[in-house]
Amino acid sequence: MELRRRLRNEKQRLKRVLKQKIRDEWTARQAVDDIEGQLQGIGFVKQATVNTPICPQRPAQKRLVEALAAPLGNTLEGQYRRRDNAIAAIVAYCMVEEGQTIRGARASVDSTRPTLMNEPPINSPQLTALMSTFIKTVTDRPRRCFICVGKALDLTSDDGAVEVLIREFYTPGDLSKHFRRKHLSNLREGDEIRCSICDLPLDHMEHLRNHALRIHGTVS
């Protein structure tokens, strides 16, 4: 546990250092150069290749970058087409980031079993992860985050984010820490709360915590 704590702290420290380095290297002049290059049809300046390993771009992220970095068209119709493509790419990327946006019928208050929405194909990793988030007894403690698994249902099986979203935590306690830090702490007044894998609207944070414990065995 001590080693895991030290490793987590070191990762957070390196993340802060990298973020500050990116901020320090960015200048107002660079933004002007990028805009002028785009207007001239040159595109953005290629960054020097370094040996630092980075994660490959996911499909929605790659589409977003390509749409925003597309050269300007020579006609008004081309400009409109470029704008529309960029808007569509942004919408697609926001859907991935915010999780499931498909709305189905509200679950009946008399229902004893939640209705699964957007169920993945048989034998897919998403389906295995999905079924593992439901408990059979009050003492069951799954090790997958039902909110993250719900986000994975919106992605294709070959998306690199799926493996991260459906991963099992080392202990149920680690899952509880993730749930509080990643999801509960980010809720704001007026946010719409919904369990995407149950297609169930939740009224407030305490409703979410109660649902997480009763249906998905996640202690918070």
Automatic annotation (TrEMBL):
<feature type="domain" description="C2H2-type">
    <location>
        <begin position="195"/>
        <end position="216"/>
    </location>
</feature>
<dbReference type="InterPro" id="IPR013087">
    <property type="entry name" value="Znf_C2H2_type"/>
</dbReference>
<dbReference type="Pfam" id="PF11917">
    <property type="entry name" value="DUF3435"/>
</dbReference>
<protein>
    <submittedName>
        <fullName>C2H2 finger domain-containing protein</fullName>
    </submittedName>
</protein>
<dbReference type="InterPro" id="IPR021842">
    <property type="entry name" value="DUF3435"/>
</dbReference>
